[in-house]
Amino acid sequence: MDNLRKEWLLNALLALALFAVPLWAWMANEPFIITLATRIAILAIAGVGLNIALGLGGMVSFGHALYLGIGGYVAGIAAHHAFSGTTVLGLPGTNQMLPIWAMAMALSGLIAGIVGALSLRTSGIFFIMITLAFAQMGFFFTLSWPAYGGEDGLPIFVRNQFPGLNTARPWELFLIAYGVLLASLGVFAMLRAARFGAALMAIRQNPDRAAAIGISPFGVKLVAFVLSGMITGLAGAMMADLTRFVSPAMMAWTMSGELIVIIILGGVGRLFGPVAGAAILVGFEVFFGGVSEHWKLWLGLVLLAVVLFARGGLIGLIAGRAQNV
Amino acid sequence: MSDPVLDLRGLSKSFGALKATDDVSLTLQPGEIHALIGPNGAGKSTLMGLVAGKIAPDAGHVRLDGTEITTLSVAQRARAGLARSFQVSSLIPDYSALRNVMLALQARQGHSYRFLRPVNRDTALREGARAALARVGLGPRASVEAAMLSHGERRLLEIAVALAMAPKCFLLDEPMAGLGSEGTARLVTFLNALKHEAPILLIEHDMDAVFKLADRISVLVYGRIIATGAPADIRANQQVRAAYLGEEAAT
Fold this sequence. Notes:
heterodimer, A: ABC transporter involved in vitamin B12 uptake, BtuC, 4 strands, globular, B: alpha/beta, Rossmann fold, four-stranded antiparallel beta sheet, ABC_transporter-like_CS (chain B)
């Protein structure tokens, strides 16, 4: 079997497993497992966002928690005002997920545009540090923002609503997250296959060559960075609704690191890399977190092994090198 | 004389105290191959960088087809019709030969911000790329990744990419390097025909090839052009012999 078919089979298996396990849990009345699967799906959406910048474009953003946090705060603030019946900047709050998602994506995209325009003039370690610096600015800003909880964070008393579904039920919330995950994977696959993806991946491999044939690296990378931030921002809004809580911790640099870890574990630039990576991360947290509080040590060892012996992550280990032909 | 396709006027570039390019003026006429030769360290690469837009000049102008392009970026110059090949093969390593050429076609059309349609189903792009590959004899290797091609094949792929850009002029930086005598002979024939599509500014170390191919030769020494002329004149030029060919004559 060639590698391309292996990868599609593995992708189908992952998609199926992520649906079948919570389906079983729903029938067996195990809400905790459904919530875990929802968490995997939402982290995977955030990872899909980062995978556009990091995987396709080679932009190692160490500040993607910023967009996760922006999405989270949009959801939290909208719900806060809807709950208290007050307005924010003259706008009423809302407890509807769809307008919240639109707002989260718009704001994340705007901020990613500013951060990208400034940081994409650099590369390598400087790019990593500048993206980190911007995320830290967001972190300390929310930390010192008493109107929305400051360091205590902001609770969402009643989970935001989705038309036709009851979001208070774990299974129905999972269905929403799963649907959005599939949609974001579809967007990723479409971008990768299109002319835009061809240009972006070429720039990652050889920016001088891309420029020499007439493709300006800066513009293509900036658009990719904005799209990347938007999808991660969407995941942030969903994450806030899952935990019904948003706090500065969502913007902490450790969260940015976790997103990178997800991509590396699953497979950089691979369509289902973030799904595999998020499943591994949450799996570790649950299985080893129960055994020892030092579970991150074991995760670190696995990460080390992946970086040293399986650069393509889980997907690469099973399905071989990425095919661009 | 007709209007030059590429017109360099008074280009200068210093790195600290080093004058890498010192008041260089040269033209590239339609249908000609203008070779740039000079000993190592003469500033050929810097001059190439100035023309391609990688390096900004301290003074001077670059005009392409009568249009000022001195302040344009590398990508803008490429879209304006300047196709360069690199001294060390510089391709997209993970892309097949076909996709390397398709990318150049896509860039030429200026449509890289297309997000929906899969590029692999773009038959116009594929056919155009196949045609360019066939011209350099790489047709059978279309689906091989650039990283897996032999050195000689990569040099040919560089040419195919430049062809796909349908440029106003070619900048070829040592296209013969490492090709071997048979490959060089074939490329000489190819370039001799290519110059009628668009003139070629050629940097080349292989002196046999240069004197066989070039319509005019400029000799660069310490960043200055010390002579420009037909191959026979350059061969006879005493200053050139002293500065440059003398080394070769001795060996």
